[in-house]
């Protein structure tokens, strides 16, 4: 009977790790969906779930640094996903400018604003880190991190301007 209870407890722990990773991603993705970003709830939920799963696989490894290597690989790989988000955002902005017929003027304005998609790319990377924390069983870190990420994402650009940042810089 104790073997069955131990197995159920282990399974419940895995379910909680995966749910925590997915929920951290869903929280961040919800905000990106509200802001009509290129990536939203499903994308961020999948990043959180996937990274939690990968981290959980190696969380009880026989070698102490297995989980560390997995997390390093995940965060490096997700950086490439973020680069793709930036590229897609920029290409979409260029296509929209061409469709409106003012491609040259809007292209100059787009260059003045800088690259598009940086916040979403950073949010994808943070979501991967939150998923890793959840997958390794650090629920507090994942929950607090998701809350802080959401807080940072809802900060409006007007607050940044009040802090001295000019529009388009």
Automatic annotation (TrEMBL):
Any Pfam family matching the protein: MgtC
Keyword terms, alphabetized: Cell inner membrane, Cell membrane, Membrane, Transmembrane, Transmembrane helix
Localization: Cell inner membrane; Cell membrane
Topology class, membrane: Multi-pass membrane protein
Domain (MgtC/SapB/SrpB/YhiD N-terminal): residue spans on this chain: 18-161
Coiled-coil segments on the chain, per record: none
Major localisation: membrane
Alphabetical list of InterPro entries matching this protein: MgtC/SapB/SrpB/YhiD_fam, MgtC_SapB_SrpB_YhiD_N
Record-level GO cellular component terms: plasma membrane
Annotated transmembrane regions: 14-31, 43-61, 73-93, 114-136, 142-159
Record-stated family: Belongs to the MgtC/SapB family.
Name of the protein described by the UniProt record: Protein MgtC
Record organism: Camelimonas lactis
């Amino acid at each position: 009977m104790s073997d069955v209870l131990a197995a159920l407890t282990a399974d419940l722990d895995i379910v909680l790790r995966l749910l925590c990773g997915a929920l951290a991603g869903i929280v961040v993705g919800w905000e990106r969906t509200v802001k009509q970003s290129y990536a939203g709830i499903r994308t961020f939920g999948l990043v959180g779930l996937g990274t939690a799963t990968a981290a959980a696989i190696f969380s009880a490894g026989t070698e102490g640094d297995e989980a560390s290597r997995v997390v390093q690989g995940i965060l490096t790989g997700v950086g490439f996903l973020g680069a793709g988000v930036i590229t897609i955002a920029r290409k979409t902005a260029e296509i929209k400018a061409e469709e409106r017929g003012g491609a040259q003027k809007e292209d100059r304005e787009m260059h003045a604003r800088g690259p598009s998609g940086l916040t979403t790319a950073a949010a994808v990377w943070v979501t991967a880190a939150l998923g890793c924390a959840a997958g390794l069983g650090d629920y507090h870190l994942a929950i607090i991190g998701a809350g802080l990420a959401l807080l940072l994402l809802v900060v409006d650009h007007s607050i940044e301007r009040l802090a001295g940042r000019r529009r388009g810089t």
